[in-house]
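user: can you give me the structure for this one chain? tokens are fine.
assistant: on it. calling the predictor now.
[tool input]
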Amino acid sequence: MGIGEDDYKKLALLLTNLWTQQQVYFVAAQNKDEKVIASSAYLLFKNRLTFIINGNLPESLQSGATHFLKDYVIKKFEQQIFLPM
């Protein structure tokens, strides 16, 4: 079955709505030429940080950019209090 173009449009609309409500955190990694090679989105809701989606180029797989982004987000939010729901 797979994911269709309509699914990507729905995701884009959801992320846009979450952005306007300040409930999503985006992060991106660039190469030395400042080209984005990986990006991630995280949901910020009810004192939780939840990974939503990651996108990357083949170059990011060789450089470890996706792992760098996850590590960056963990360090950025490690001092915040995320209480049980």
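assistant: here you go. Residues 5-20 form the longest helix (16 residues). The helical segments are 5-20, 58-63, 65-77.
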